[in-house]
Amino acid sequence: MLSFEDQRWTTLKGGYHVPYDPRPALMRLEAEESVVVTWKELWNELHHQGDVDDASYAVVPHLVRIYVAKSNIDWNFYAIVSTIEIERHRRKNPSLPDWLAEDYFQAWNELVRLALRDFPKVQTDVEVKTILGALAIAKKQLKLAALISNFDDAEIDEFLEDQLAWSQIYDERR
Hints:
Blueprint: H1 23-30, H2 35-46, H3 54-68, H4 75-88, H5 98-118, H6 125-138, H7 142-150, H8 153-164, H9 167-173
């Protein structure tokens, strides 16, 4: 894992493909300071209209490290790491740097354990979707994960009605 003292942080790029040093945001998240504002910053800086870059990849092991110690479920954690992984596969985004690959994939292995720990405790639809999306990614089901992560309820309803003629039947049998 890239140490916070490593000077590479100052040269890493975020979702706008410009330098972004996420260490202060990661430290605030770890200290549970300004959590809502910090998540907003991380979302804005690490992902922009499908774009991610090396800073986005470098935060994943740290987010997992931070989240391991948390007992509360935060959909932002699952959603942002899933978004980064989905977008990593777009041709326009840079490849995962070799120096980061081992830590990045180890973090994903740990994320599966966390998702399985958290899933029985989920309370909201967004928690269900983000954890299922992360698990789909971990099982190499990237397309399924993209659907789970990117479709809202209205889009899912429309698909079910148009393609499967299913939504009304399901609702009636609930």
